[in-house]
Amino acid sequence: MIVVKVGGSVVEFAEQLFGHLQDLSKAGKTILVIPGGWIFAEKVRELWRKGTINDETAHWMAVECMDVYGYYLSRFAQPVIPESFHELLEDLKPGVQVLIPGKLVRNHDELPHSWEITSDSIAIWVAGKIGAGTIIKATDVDGLMIDGKIVSRISASQLRNETCIDSYAPRLLSEYGLDIFVCRWDRVKDYILRRAAIGTLIAGSEVL
Fold this sequence. Notes:
By secondary structure, this protein is α/β, with parallel strands linked by helices.
């Protein structure tokens, strides 16, 4: 099982990315795409910063933003709209599917309602719950940059606020013993096939 978090930064390349993922699915791989919140979540964050909405409201609005972007991405792959993790596992099959996560997140309300949590943490949380072996964050950068350089590998415990994933994600990676690979969207296929691509492996399964 492969989980690919697709953020709004790669929306203009979405069709090409899904083409790569569909190529992989022909080899029998099961790929679950988890959407970010795209431009919609940025608007929610703006309202929250102004004090127009509180943390609770912002959290659920941002989750709904993931649903909206998920429906947009479902132009390229079949959507799956589960109400439970059991239902999600039953629905998953070889191929590429896009998670519409709103019902799932609301029915399994386990994550903090704050901006510590973004779609990054939700992707890791879902991957941990369904036993995914691989998690990839497809983005528009080459990986995690520290002190002006891309690092190829770092432990989740070493991450700081300057990273490109949210601040709650390291805790979830460590809790589930999972790693996430952060890379540019056009390197996802290489990583899945060969576990060798330019990017950053954030390791929650070990202390480096």
